[in-house]
Specification:
The chain is about 60% helix and about 0% strand. It has about 70 residues and is mainly alpha-helical. The mean pLDDT is about 90.
Length: about 70
Amino acid sequence: MEIEEVPTVVLRLTRKDAEHFSHGLSDILCWCRGFRAALGETNPNDPLGVEEVRELRIKLKRALEESK
């Protein structure tokens, strides 16, 4: 079975910067959740990119954990 190579991107950050960005992303996600709750579930004006920000934060947290 042949394994397909997938292009990757490496982002170099200090641990302090990575933690700072992770906390900032958390704040954004929290704000979005409150925004969506205030508008109600039937409102079509949900902020875009929430899932992408969530996935980025998960990857950042995983990289922080692996760097210990």
